[in-house]
Amino acid sequence: MSKVLLEIQGLRKQYGAVEVLKGVDCTMHQGEVISIIGSSGSGKTTMLRCINMLEDFQGGHIRLDGEEIGYDQSGSSRKRKSEKEIARQRALTGMAFQQFNLFPHLTAAKNVMLGLVKVKKMPHDEARALAEKWLDRVGLKSRADHYPGQLSGGQQQRVAIARAIAMAPRLMLFDEVTSALDPELVGEVLQVIKGLAADGMSMLLVTHEMRFAYEVSSRVIFMNQGVICEEGNPKEMFVKPKTERLAEFLKTSSFN
Q1: CB burial of residue 228 (10 Å; 0-12, 13-18, 19+)
Q2: What angle do CA 8, 9, 12 make, to 5 degrees?
Q3: Are 50 and 57 spatial neighbours (Cβ–Cβ below 8 Å)?
Q4: Cβ–Cβ < 8 Å for 62, 93
Q5: Is the separation of the CB atoms in 243 and 230 below 8 Å?
Q6: Are 230 and 244 in contact (CB under 8 A)?
Q7: Eight-state DSSP code of residue 150
Q8: Can you give the pLDDT at residue 256?
């Protein structure tokens, strides 16, 4: 078994009086592709956003490559890390969102280059070469000098994925990256993710594409009402769910 990359213990997250995550435990190994499935409001996206500190969390631990994320904890004492330190930790993960979040005034290449130049202080020519490499990897090298407004939704999402991966994250997080796309554009984005999985990239995906989760995942996590209800090999979970709740969810999902 490869080394542990991500370790989540007793993760709790509240919005006011509403507890969204109720003590989540999860361990992920290097090179795993884990899909997180479940109904809307089950805590899937919140869990992802806690991992890269887009959301604060009220209890538990998140460790990435052995490093405590977000907080310094000593006994019962808990203190949020400095913004500078959190920004450094956030760069350990790459994240692709439902919305592409590209800068409309920058070309595809310059969108990919921005973090390389500004954050990694990479020379312009080196950043351009790396941007072209990753745009080529997602099938968009010929669109490098096009602006987002000149690209389809699927192409924009592929640029967003290239931008995240170019930063060489230890873990890629995907949050429903196909949900804002027209159905005919979904396949091209899923194909890119399949290619990255084949390359051995560590990925955590929140997805409602059940067939895709079945095909690409080394493991699937089913969340319900803020807890992990069931997890395991997709070939077993999708064919013979152990819990009634997962069986019900699969009946109403796109998996058949």
Answers
A1: buried
A2: 95
A3: yes
A4: no
A5: yes
A6: no
A7: G
A8: 55
247, two tokens: 């069986």
**Alpha-helical regions (H) of 138-243:** 153-166, 183-198, 210-216, 234-237
Mean pLDDT by 10 residues, the chain (256 residues): 91 94 96 94 94 94 95 87 93 90 96 94 96 95 96 94 94 91 87 91 93 92 95 93 92 72
Q: How many helical (H) and strand (E) elements, i.e. helices and strands, does the chain have? A: 9, 12
CA 128 distance to own-chain centroid:
25
Residues 6+ apart with CB under 8 A from 178: 157, 186, 189, 190, 207, 209
HSE-up (13 A, CA, CB side) for residue 226: 12
Q: Where are the beta strands (DSSP E) in 53-129?
A: 59-64, 67-68, 71-74, 77-80, 93-96
C-alpha dihedral, 64 to 66 to 68 to 69, nearest 10°: -10
Residue 137 CA to its chain's centroid (Å): 19
The pTM score is 0.92
188, two tokens: 């091209």
Instruction: Give the H/E segment covering residue 205.
Output: strand 203-206
CA distance 170 to 15: 29
Backbone phi and psi for residue 123, each to the nearest 5 degrees, phi listed first: -55, 150
Whether 112 and 155 have beta carbons less than 8 Å apart is answered as no
What pLDDT was estimated at residue 154?
A: 92
Lookup: tokens for 71: 């907080």
List Cα–Cα distances, 185 to 55, 84, 154, 243, in angstroms.
30, 38, 5, 33
Return the SS3 of 28: strand
DSSP one-letter string for 95-117 = EE-SS----TTS-HHHHHHHHHH
Residues 46, 99: Cα–Cα separation, whole Å: 16
